[in-house]
């Protein structure tokens, strides 16, 4: 009895505070609260930006320049992309000079990652795509009410990988654990390794943004709570609420799911293993947004029910439509939201360092050398090619390697 009176008084008090502080854009939030979870649909999905971690309590004068820059990114005023490149010669790994520069070991790690992430077609490989998803699944297991979790390395330091949410991440997990074994002695945490992998992978994909990359996260060997990652059959309401709990507003969510521009699904429908979410897997373009809206994209394009639901929701659709022809707008927004995602649960933002300078340069244009074969495959022909496309191998090269054999068989008649 006492408890329920207390609850009523608390909610009245909170209501009063909210009312007193309300501004024009706030009315929807108030109505949301009053309609007990039934969301208003006239909200356009661009909501006040929230701070996270230690930035919630530190004053501006206490912030390092790096943390001040992060704060401006989170508030939507600062850019989360950077083209600053380190052109100095990198000292050998293990040398004194290398140990003296936080970003030196990351430079070597970046070179190892690029080898795994870039394919001969110029597109990014299945490892790159999985690295982006791994970054999301480590950081995303967090909500505003979590005491711990988020971008803490736990996905590879615990048995989280066995969860059905994480199906498909086994290969990148093995590769990342091997990198960890090699680079952890030089001071790289698992949490940083995973988030760095995601930003290297993104910029290796043609047209991908060069996202500001921060290091200094602290590992956590405890599994994060379940139920914090989205499902492919979730409604727009469920997805939007889940991401709001991660401080990501509907526009932020729309920007982040654009990562499906590069993907090829394996487990949503196993009889369509390898089918991409737009007609350009391995390329960080905006085709995903347009093709998710199209009733009849190329036959092999496999739309996720969650993406379709989101694209139609009034809180998401205006931004979704803007991205259809908005590559640089999307890159900007994706980078901003990814910086936020990559810092969920991080409580020491004020002690992070920036190592963006060791990322490879962005590829600002891309033409597929093997478009002819890609087009055939997308129309449903030669399903066997899916495997090579997953590896970002140039199909032209593949055909080239078969030609001499054919010539031999056909006695030089081609
Ligand atoms: C609405 C929320 C989301 C849902 C329901 C969702 C669901 C999925 C599903 C079902 C797959 C296919 C897995 C498979 O069958 O192999 C997938 C792949 C992928 N997702 Fe998401 N996702 C969501 C948000 C995100 C976000 C926020 C990111 C990144 C920031 C992301 C990045 C990726 C990537 C890169 C892949 C491809 C992985 C690969 O090729 O191995 N997704 N997602
Ligand atoms: C999603 O829905 C489809 C079709 O109803 C179903 O076959 C599939 O198993 C569901 N997937 C998940 C992960 O619940
Ligand atoms: C999976 O794909 C196959 C082949 O296109 C289709 O016949 C089947 O209905 C799909 N299954 C589900 C659950 O959507």
Structure description:
By secondary structure, this protein is mostly helical. The chain has 2 domains: 66 residues; 306 residues, Orthogonal Bundle (Peroxidase, domain 1). 45% of the residues lie in helices and 1% in strands. The protein contains 18 helices and 2 strands. It has a two-stranded antiparallel sheet with strand order 1-2. α6 crosses α9, α8 crosses α9 and α11 crosses α15. The longest helix has 19 residues. It starts with a helix and ends in a 5-residue tail after the last helix. The site of one 2-acetamido-2-deoxy-beta-D-glucopyranose has 3 residues, from loops.
What labels would you give this structure?
globular, binds 2-acetamido-2-deoxy-beta-D-glucopyranose, binds protoporphyrin IX containing FE, 18 helices, 414 residues, 1% strand, Peroxidase, domain 1, mainly alpha, two-stranded antiparallel ribbon, 2 strands
Just name the CATH architecture of the largest domain. Answer: Orthogonal Bundle
Radius of gyration: 23 Å
The first-level CATH class of the largest domain is given as Mainly Alpha
The strand count comes to 2
The secondary-structure class comes to: mainly alpha
Q: What general outline do the C-alpha atoms trace?
A: globular
Q: Please give the largest β-sheet.
A: 2 strands, antiparallel
Provide the β-strand percentage band.
Answer: under 5%
Unreliable stretches: 1-42
Present as ligands are:
protoporphyrin IX containing FE, 2-acetamido-2-deoxy-beta-D-glucopyranose
Signal peptide: 1-22
Domain Plant heme peroxidase family profile: 150-359
Protein name: Peroxidase
Disulfide bonds: 103-355, 124-205
